[in-house]
Design brief:
globular, two-stranded antiparallel ribbon, 5 helices, 152 residues, alpha/beta, 32% helix, single chain
């Protein structure tokens, strides 16, 4: 009941689990994101530096909602895709990271094996990661957040 009230008051948002292979929402628990990460930090008694990965993931989730997407957590063959953003017939996949670990393809592998032709993007908090890895765009998170403002 409390969870529903928090969602109805727009303090918490649920990202349901979405099967990319089956193209349907799954009945398993999704993830929750908060409108104000300060509330989360107070509740968990943490500061933002302790959990920077979760903080930036929360920011991307809220921004995708602001841009008009329905946002879910993706599942493809047991691998989690941070976000599946859907608007009409448009679908985009996003992975969010503080930085791409050198010599590791962990952040891109989850996206690389999805066989459809929809846009796949890794958003990194490190501007040194920008470019393309195995055909997947890697964008600097701050530029991605600002790009819609620049288009106006």
């Amino acid at each position: 009941m409390t969870r529903q009230l928090l969602q109805q008051s727009y303090l918490f948002y649920e990202a349901k689990k979405y099967s990319i292979r089956g193209k349907k929402l799954l009945s398993t628990l999704g993830k929750y994101y908060v409108a104000d990460t300060g509330l989360r930090n107070i509740r968990l008694n943490k500061n933002y530096r302790d959990n920077l990965g979760h903080q930036i993931e929360n920011i991307v989730f809220i921004e995708l909602l602001r841009r008009g997407y329905n946002v879910d957590v993706g599942d493809y063959s047991g691998k989690e895709i941070d976000f599946v953003a859907r608007k009409g017939n448009e679908i985009k996949y996003y992975q969010v990271t503080e930085h791409l670990p050198e010599g590791s393809t962990r952040e891109t592998d989850n996206l690389r094996y999805i066989p459809d032709g929809y846009q796949k993007t890794v958003l990194s908090l490190s501007q040194f990661d920008e470019g393309t890895v195995d055909g997947i765009a890697v964008k600097y998170l701050i530029d991605w957040l600002l790009e819609e403002q620049i288009k106006r």
